[in-house]
Design brief:
The chain is of the alpha+beta class. The protein has one domain. The protein contains five helices and 16 strands. It starts with a strand and ends in a 21-residue tail after the last strand.
């Protein structure tokens, strides 16, 4: 990380600044953070553009120093209040099927106004599995097929995997196909680590809304980009942070603060490598 003296504003860069202008004072921290694909900071999308991974936001947060709160409970869309994170299990297999998590991040704006950004994420691994398998079948018809469960032969049932997604309509994959094997491996991994994955996705979704953070999509060259990050100073201690989170949970607003609230179905999100869960430097691992 390269530090820029705030005594020399001509050295500041407007690259990736949300508004194109930067406002800071001697009390704030300003830094240029180098994000690299090699260090797991970046994700390249199908269109060739680059985005910041959870690991990249942790690197940025070493400068920004923004705090995130995990509420004890979540209010789901169906009205239930459940523990956070929350796991639903498949009644047939007894294994994890859906994961929810909510994270609330509290930071400051350039004007000194608190910014409260909340993200509630659903990670439905059954939906994700179906979409991954259908994609492989579109690329290679030998991998499997879309069919009704009752149309599969006994041999097909023994030599493959079927996942229904609309009544008896579902997707079938053959066990001897390498692409199907990889999709099944992803399914097993998601069942085992879904609670960590959904919490990471919720944290990333909440912190990236903060003004301190760079834009979510970047122009990287050879998998490297330098981004400007500002740590807007705040006076929030743990008690105050918990009060803010409690007020938001009760009223969906916070007095004197700007609130950003997002609900995400992450069945198509890019899931980052498990190693990103192992350290706590720069932000939480779950």
């Amino acid at each position: 990380m390269q530090e820029i003296s705030i005594n020399y504003p001509e050295q500041w860069k407007t690259v990736n600044s949300r508004a194109g202008n930067l406002f800071t004072s001697a009390e704030n921290t300003v830094g240029v953070v180098r994000l690299t694909n090699a260090d797991g900071h970046l994700i390249q999308f199908d269109d060739g553009e680059w985005g910041i991974s959870a690991e990249g936001y942790r690197a940025c947060n070493l400068v920004a120093g923004i705090s995130t709160i995990t509420p004890d409970t979540i209010h789901l869309a169906d009205g239930r209040e459940v523990s956070n994170p929350y796991i639903e299990f498949d009644p047939e297999t007894g294994t994890a099927d859906k994961f929810w998590s909510q994270k609330i991040t509290v930071g400051m704006s350039p004007s000194g106004k608190p910014i409260v950004s909340s993200a509630t994420v659903l990670f439905d691994i059954r939906v994700r599995f179906v979409k991954e398998l259908m994609q492989k079948i579109e690329e290679n018809r030998d991998a499997g097929k879309l069919c009704m469960e009752g149309t599969l032969t006994d041999e097909e049932l023994r030599s493959g995997i079927f996942m229904a997604f609309q009544g008896e309509l579902g997707v079938y994959g053959r066990h001897d196909n390498i692409d199907v094997i990889r999709v099944i491996q992803n399914l097993i991994n998601n069942k085992e680590h879904g609670d960590k994955i959904v919490q990471t996705l919720a944290w990333k979704a909440s912190i990236k809304q903060q003004p301190s953070m760079p834009l979510a999509k970047l122009k990287a060259y050879n998998g490297v980009v330098d981004v400007l990050v500002i740590g807007y100073k705040d006076t929030f201690d743990e008690t105050k942070l918990n009060e803010i989170a409690a007020e938001f949970q009760q009223t969906s607003s916070v007095a004197g603060a700007e609130v950003i609230e997002e609900t995400i179905n992450a069945s198509e999100e890019s899931i980052e490598i498990e190693e990103s869960f192992l350290s706590t430097k720069g932000g939480p691992r779950f």
